[in-house]
Known about the structure:
The protein is an alpha+beta fold. Helix content is 35%, strand content 17%. It has helices at 42-45, 51-63, 68-75, 79-91, 116-125, 133-145, 149-168, 180-187, 219-235, 250-260; strands at residues 66-67, 95-98, 101-102, 106-107, 111-114, 172-179, 195-201, 204-212, 243-247, 269-273, 287-289, 296-297, 328-329, 332-333. α2 crosses α5 (116-125), α3 (68-75) crosses α4 (79-91) and α3 (68-75) packs parallel to α7. The longest helix has 20 residues, at 149-168.
Amino acid sequence: MTDPSPATRNIPTGDTSRPGVLRTPHTRPVGAPRRARTPDSLREISWRLEPRDYVLAHLLHEHRYLTTAQIGAILFTSPRTCRNRLNVLRKIGFVDWFMPVRPGAGRLPVHWVPGPLSARYVALHHGQRPPTAKAVREAQDAVVSGGHLHHNDGANQFFVDLFAHARGHPDTRLVRWWPSRRIAAAIDHNVRPDGHGVWCEHDRQVAFFLEHDTGTEVHAALTRGKLAAYRKLVASGGPAWPVLFWLPTTARETNFHRRLNGAARGLAVATAARDAVAGHGPAGPVWRVAGNGRRRLRLAELPCQLGEPGAYHPGPPAPEQDPLYLLRDDTGTSTG
């Protein structure tokens, strides 16, 4: 007589069936394709990687996440090519993605994060010990569960728009782009901008601090709290770079200037409204400098002295700090 009860082999030690629960071994259906193993070393995928992929690894490490559209604007000329390449990199474990949900707004666009192998590459590139698979997963989960995603996306988009402008204007270039945590560490002071960049047009370089405003903070926090911290930084020998307030609307910008009063004293403070920069972007003649009337300046026209490195001063940009350094040659950026 044949025993009708299913076999219980392959159950791990200590993992016994509960009363009344039958376990069956997990078997692959006849004829079903085998699931491809995800590579676990850079050596295995080195032949599949391109210089652009290494640049992407550095960008995701530095800024923690970028959307598909942002990556496309920086590194690709075709959205379809961008999506296809990202999908390939995901399959080989180089990058990963998540799709966040924002209350009241539903699902946001796909965001890309470092995968196990891109994290390994960046660590080795900097002479550091590669993170474990567990550490990579925890870093990814911290991004997914963390707040300020909408705010950070907006701050990142400011710099992405500069990249897009530079692609159409060979005489311009974003030669440094640091996120909040990196510039805060570099100036070692009680100032935490939403980002820092150095914009180059012809032979002129303008360094700046970015304050990305979503319209939720009261003006007093912007005009008194933030600017007082920047003033202390300058008094301590830190950089006197322009502080850019990237505001959501023209109405908010107008009210902001009314409330500045003397808060901008000793600082170069410039504002622009995102609803009034169509056709220009942040590189164009959209910046209104406090105390300079209503005349609008291009980003490259803002007053700036790069200064020298110091305890609270990162100094001018080095060539290897260019976000696209690995793609640069004598003719510019090689992308496709």
